[in-house]
Amino acid sequence: MTLKNEPPTSEILPQIIPRAEHNISRDDISKNALKVLYRLHNAGYQAFLVGGCVRDELLELHPKDFDVATNAHPEEIKALFGNCRLIGRRFRLAHVRFGQEVIEVATFRASVGEEEDHADAVQDTHGRILRDNVYGTIEEDVWRRDFTCNALYYNIADFSVWDYVGGVEHIRQRRLVLIGDPERRLREDPVRMLRAVRFAAKLDFTVDPAVEQAMHDCVGRLASVPPARLFDEFLKMFQGGHAERTFELLWHYRLFDQLFPETARELDRSESFGRFVKSALVNTDRRVAEGKSVTPMFLLGVFFWEPVRIRASKMLDDEGGSETHALAVAAFDLSGAQQRILSIPKRFTGPMREMLALQPRFEVMRGRRGLGLLEHRRFRAAYDFLMLRAEAGDADEQTAKFWTDVQLQSAEEREKSFEISGPGRKSSKKRKPRRRRRPANQP
Ligand code: ATP
Ligand code: MG
Description:
Layout: E1 15-17, H1 31-42, E2 47-50, H2 52-58, E3 67-70, H3 74-80, E4 84-87, E5 93-98, E6 101-107, E7 121-123, E8 129-132, H4 138-141, E9 152-155, E10 161-163, H5 167-173, E11 175-176, H6 182-188, H7 191-203, E12 206-207, H8 209-218, H9 227-238, H10 243-252, H11 256-259, H12 261-269, H13 271-289, H14 296-319, H15 323-339, H16 346-357, H17 367-372, H18 379-391, H19 397-407, H20 411-417
Parallel strand pairs: 3-6, 11-12
Antiparallel strand pairs: 1-10, 2-3, 2-9, 4-5, 5-6, 7-8, 9-10
Helix pairs in contact: 6-8, 7-9, 7-10, 12-14, 13-14, 14-15, 14-16, 15-16, 18-19
The protein binds adenosine-5'-triphosphate and magnesium ion (MG).
Magnesium ion binds next to loops.
């Protein structure tokens, strides 16, 4: 059957795939999501799973969360669930909490066309959606979704899948297709370009040529997206276990230079910086695959390393001073410039600056100053960063080995390694007690 990939002018019926013809089993659906679906259904509302979880189930992947769509309005949802909170400014959503798990329940919403004039739907002069709280039916809800693979609905009433846009077929073909006119959809919300890249990397899908063309024409529009939203998307893109592929695609579609212009400039210039960034991405993906924690400050530090170094060396040429200080100032300046595009919360920029500024201190392998670095609250992150630099040929391997070895040594062995002789701690002179530093809270 042919399906129109456009909002309907008259009524359009979904292709309904009965339970016997798809692989989604209730055994694979979160028990809590099922509870929510059944309670809505039993109260007489429509209740569907929608979005990424349906897509992932069809692909036999484990969804990371389960989203519910319904014709019940937020207040009606709240009345049904004691453990429910209404959240959101941009979208009004219900969060139903079961311990650690939150099931997001959204009321069907209508998409906002450029020529429409809803009091509750606001667009800027470039057609970007600012707010869209216009409730609708499932037939309307489907058209505001981004990709066809994300617009499938699993109906709890009979366990069928409803497909208005050919999403099931596109999933089979592993194609990422935007619903409606690609350029208009990207203008409405330029973050969809980053989502395209993220899904292509995660699902190993190809981006539809029409979407690629529209992306080519719309890259510059990312500049209109609020910097905080871009940071959220950065986390999703780089901490989902597919950072390396995501980076390649961002680079390919010239999106990376929109997000990190100074990093992109240095990547163009320096192959060794490229190798460094690549090993950091591979390393991040490995950590995610092993279930280890990843902190955004590490990868951001990697992206900033070369531009910070260049800024710092200019500063040293002009003003002199210590390298550590110059790096700290340069990192401060660069993160300041970066905030205008993609804003990084302070809790990450502070540690990142310290991690970068500590790098020259690894060259000090003698004396109490050298030894003292082991006690620094940012030692662990700075050391991991050094190891990555060494792996990429950016730091001396012997130096890296020295710092690996000393961590395993006893106090006496360390004094020897750092060539500390003389009175030191055994001095009879009374020393001022040192203030204890707060323990590091970074991994
Ligand atoms: P993930 O596996 O990352 O959770 P997802 O597809 O579930 O992927 P979410 O960001 O959780 O992505 O969004 C849930 C659903 O909401 C999407 O599948 C899509 O239908 C819709 N959606 C989310 N963001 C947008 C957007 N910017 N434009 C249009 N639709 C969107
Ligand atoms: Mg999701």
